[in-house]
Recover the amino acids of this structure.
C-alpha cells in the first residue's frame, strides 16, 4: 500500500516553476482544510504544553509574583542545591519510587490472579456480576474514596476499630501512625484498581484457544500446571509490556490518592508525601515557586529518560506495542 | 460405542471444590467492594445520636432521612455544585470530542502532508512537560483564568491519549469510502461531519465516556484555581467537607425548622448524604456504560 501520497502532477509542476515562498504558500493551500481542523487542538497544545516550557527558567530564578518570570533575579542552581542538601528531595523521591514499585508488584500479581481465576468460571452471568461489582470503585474519585476510607478507619466512629474492640483488641489511631500508611494505601489502590486492571489480562486469557487446555487435560495436567504452562506464557508479553510502561511512570504519582486519603494530616507526611504532593504543597501552602519548579524539572527529566528507556525495552518484546 | 465417563468421581469432586473456592473468592472480593459503599449509605440514613453512640454501622440501627431533608431544605450549595459539574461535564465532553476528533481525523488522513511532524509534536507532550509551576503561573498570571468556570474545562480539552485512540479508529475506515466521497465533490469538513462521525459512533461513545468520567470526577482544576464558592464543583465540595465536618451545615440558616437543638444537626450523616448525592448518580450511570470502558481499555492497549 502506498503510504506516501505523491503530489498530483499539476501540483508538482507548479512547485517546479516557483520559488520557496510560493512553495510554502502552495503547500499550506493544499492542506488548508486539515490545518483548520487541527487548529483548535494545536492551539491548546501550544498554549498549555509548550508555552510552559518557558517557565522552566523559574527553577533557576528567585521568582517574585509581581516581577513576573522575565524580571525575577537569576540564581542559577541555588534551588537545586537546596533541594539536594535539604533531604526533602530524598524523602519524596523515596516515597514516590517505593510506592510505585509496591503498586506495580502487588498490582500485577493480584490483577493476574483475578484474571486467571475469573477465566476459570464458566457461568457467564457470574463473571459479568463479579466484574461489574469489582469495576464500581474505579468510577469513584479519590475524594469520594477518602470518605469511604474514613468510615472504616475513623478512630472513634470507624467500623474497623469497632470490629477490633468486639474482638478484644484495642482501637488503633490509624490517622496518626505514618508507618501503617503504605499498607493502607496499597489496599486502597487494589480496592479501586483491580476491577479495571484485571481486564487487560482477562482479555488476553479469553483469547486463548480452549483446545490447548483440553489437550493438556487429556495429557493429565492439573490446573496449576495448565496455568504455568499455557496461560502464563500467553500472558508473558502483556505482563512485560504493562510492567515496563509502569516503570516508565515510576517518578509520577497519583496526586488524589496521596493527598486526599491521608486527609492532609501532617503526621503522615513522612510516608505519604510524594513528588507531586510536595510540589503542590510548596506552591499553595508555602507560596514557593523556585524550589517546586526545580523539583518539577527534575521529575520531567527523569521521567522522560525512563519513558524512552522503557519504551526501548518494550520494542524488544513486541514492536507493535511500543509507543514509538 | 460405550463411552466411559472421562472424569473419575474424584476429579469431579476436586473440580467442585475448585468452583466453590473460586466463587467464594470472588464473592468475598465483591463483598469487600460493596461493604464500604453500603456503609456510606447507611451512615447517611442514620440518626445523628446513633452515630455518636454506636459509631459508623454497616447496617443502621434506626433509619432516619433527616440528613437528606436537611440538604433539600437548603439545597442551594449542592444544587449550585451540581450545576457547575453538569455544565463542565457536558460542555467539556462535547467540546473535547469535537476538538479531539477533528484533530484525529486530520492526522489520520494520508493526504495531510504535515501529519507526521504534528503527531510527533503532540506525542512529545506526553513524555516531557514543564511541570506544575510554569503551567500554574501561565493559567493564573497570563491567561487570567482563575475563578472562571472555563478554567475547569479548557486545560483538559486537548488530550493526546484520547486523540490518538480516535486516530487509530479513523485510520480503520477504508480509504475507498473517502475517495468516492471526494470524487463526488465533498471537501474534508463535509467528509468528517457526514461520513466519519456517523461511522465512528462506538469509538466516539467510548472516548466521550472517558472524557465525561474525567470531567465529572475532576477536583484538581477546582483545587488549584477556584476560591469563589459559587464555582465549586461537586468533588471540591466533598473535599471541603472532609476537612471540616460542619462545612456543609454551617452554611445553612439555623432556623431550618427541622431540628430542635444544635446537637441534632446531622453533620456526620449529611456529609455522607452529600457523598451519595455527588457520587451516586454517576456511579450508577457509569456502571451502566461499563462495557464501553472495557472496550476502550482493550482496544487502547493495542498501539494507539
Amino acid at each position: 500500500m502506498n503510504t506516501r501520497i505523491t503530489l498530483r502532477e499539476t501540483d508538482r509542476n507548479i512547485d517546479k516553476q516557483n520559488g520557496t515562498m510560493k512553495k510554502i504558500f502552495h503547500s499550506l493551500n493544499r492542506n488548508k482544510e486539515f490545518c483548520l481542523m487541527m487548529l483548535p487542538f494545536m492551539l491548546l497544545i501550544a498554549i498549555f504544553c509548550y508555552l510552559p516550557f518557558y517557565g522552566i527558567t523559574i527553577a533557576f530564578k528567585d521568582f517574585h509574583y509581581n516581577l513576573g518570570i522575565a524580571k525575577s533575579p537569576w540564581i542559577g542552581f541555588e534551588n537545586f542545591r537546596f533541594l539536594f542538601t535539604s533531604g526533602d528531595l530524598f524523602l519524596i523521591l523515596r516515597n514516590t519510587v517505593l510506592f510505585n514499585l509496591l503498586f506495580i508488584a502487588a498490582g500485577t500479581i493480584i490483577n493476574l490472579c483475578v484474571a486467571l481465576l475469573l477465566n476459570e468460571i464458566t457461568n457467564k452471568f457470574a463473571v459479568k456480576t463479579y466484574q461489574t461489582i469489582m469495576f464500581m470503585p474505579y468510577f469513584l474519585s479519590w475524594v469520594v474514596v477518602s470518605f469511604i476510607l474514613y468510615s472504616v478507619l475513623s478512630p472513634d466512629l470507624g467500623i474497623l476499630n469497632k470490629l477490633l474492640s468486639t474482638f478484644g483488641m484495642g482501637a488503633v489511631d490509624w490517622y496518626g501512625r505514618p508507618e501503617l500508611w503504605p499498607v493502607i494505601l496499597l489496599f486502597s489502590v487494589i480496592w479501586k484498581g483491580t476491577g479495571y486492571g484485571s481486564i487487560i489480562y482477562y482479555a488476553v486469557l479469553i483469547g486463548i484457544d480452549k483446545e490447548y487446555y483440553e489437550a493438556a487435560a487429556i495429557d493429565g495436567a492439573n490446573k496449576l500446571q495448565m496455568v504455568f504452562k499455557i496461560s502464563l506464557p500467553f500472558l508473558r508479553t502483556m505482563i512485560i509490556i504493562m510492567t515496563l510502561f509502569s516503570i516508565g511512570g515510576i517518578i509520577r504519582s497519583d496526586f488524589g490518592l496521596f493527598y486526599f486519603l491521608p486527609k492532609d494530616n501532617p503526621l503522615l507526611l513522612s510516608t505519604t508525601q510524594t513528588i507531586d504532593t510536595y510540589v503542590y504543597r510548596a506552591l499553595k501552602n508555602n507560596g514557593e515557586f523556585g524550589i517546586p519548579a526545580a523539583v518539577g524539572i527534575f521529575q520531567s527529566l527523569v521521567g522522560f529518560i525512563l519513558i524512552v528507556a522503557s519504551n526501548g525495552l518494550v520494542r524488544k518484546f513486541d514492536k507493535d506495542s511500543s509507543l514509538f | 460405542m460405550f463411552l466411559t465417563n472421562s472424569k473419575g468421581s474424584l476429579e469431579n469432586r476436586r473440580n467442585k471444590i475448585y468452583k466453590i473456592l473460586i466463587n467464594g473468592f470472588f464473592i468475598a472480593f465483591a463483598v469487600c467492594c460493596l461493604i464500604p459503599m453500603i456503609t456510606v449509605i447507611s451512615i447517611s440514613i442514620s440518626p445523628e445520636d446513633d452515630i455518636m453512640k454506636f459509631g459508623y454501622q454497616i447496617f443502621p440501627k434506626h433509619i432516619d432521612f433527616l440528613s437528606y431533608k436537611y440538604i433539600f431544605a437548603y439545597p442551594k450549595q449542592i444544587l449550585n455544585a451540581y450545576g457547575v459539574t453538569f455544565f463542565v461535564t457536558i460542555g467539556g465532553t462535547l467540546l473535547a470530542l469535537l476538538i479531539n476528533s477533528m484533530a484525529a481525523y486530520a492526522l489520520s488522513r494520508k493526504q495531510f502532508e504535515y501529519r507526521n511532524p504534528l503527531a510527533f509534536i503532540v506525542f512529545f507532550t506526553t513524555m516531557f512537560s514543564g511541570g506544575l509551576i510554569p503551567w500554574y503561573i501561565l493559567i493564573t498570571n497570563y491567561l487570567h483564568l482563575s475563578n472562571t468556570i472555563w478554567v475547569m474545562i479548557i486545560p483538559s480539552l486537548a488530550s493526546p491519549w484520547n486523540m490518538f485512540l480516535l486516530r487509530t479508529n479513523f485510520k480503520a475506515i477504508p480509504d475507498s469510502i473517502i475517495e468516492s466521497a471526494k470524487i463526488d465533490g465533498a471537501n474534508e469538513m463535509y467528509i468528517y461531519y457526514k461520513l466519519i462521525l456517523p461511522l465512528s459512533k462506538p469509538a466516539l461513545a467510548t472516548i466521550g465516556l472517558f472524557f465525561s468520567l474525567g470531567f465529572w470526577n475532576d477536583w484538581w482544576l477546582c483545587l488549584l484555581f477556584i476560591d469563589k464558592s459559587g464555582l465549586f464543583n461537586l468533588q471540591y465540595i466533598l473535599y471541603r467537607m472532609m476537612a471540616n465536618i460542619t462545612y456543609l451545615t454551617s452554611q445553612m440558616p439555623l432556623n431550618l425548622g427541622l431540628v430542635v437543638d444544635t446537637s441534632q444537626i446531622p453533620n456526620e450523616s449529611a456529609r455522607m448524604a452529600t457523598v451519595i448525592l455527588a457520587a451516586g448518580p454517576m456511579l450508577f450511570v457509569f456502571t451502566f456504560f461499563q462495557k464501553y470502558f472495557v472496550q476502550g481499555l482493550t482496544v487502547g492497549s493495542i498501539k494507539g
